[in-house]
Amino acid sequence: NAGVTQTPKFQVLKTGQSMTLQCAQDMNHNSMYWYRQDPGMGLRLIYYSASEGTTDKGEVPNGYNVSRLNKREFSLRLESAAPSQTSVYFCASVTSGGVTYEQYFGPGTRLTVT
Amino acid sequence: DQQVKQNSPSLSVQEGRISILNCDYTNSMFDYFLWYKKYPAEGPTFLISISSIKDKNEDGRFTVFLNKSAKHLSLHIVPSQPGDSAVYFCAASANAGNMLTFGGGTRLMVKP
Question: Is the peptide bond before A107 cis (omega within 30 degrees of 0)?
Answer without folding.
Answer: no
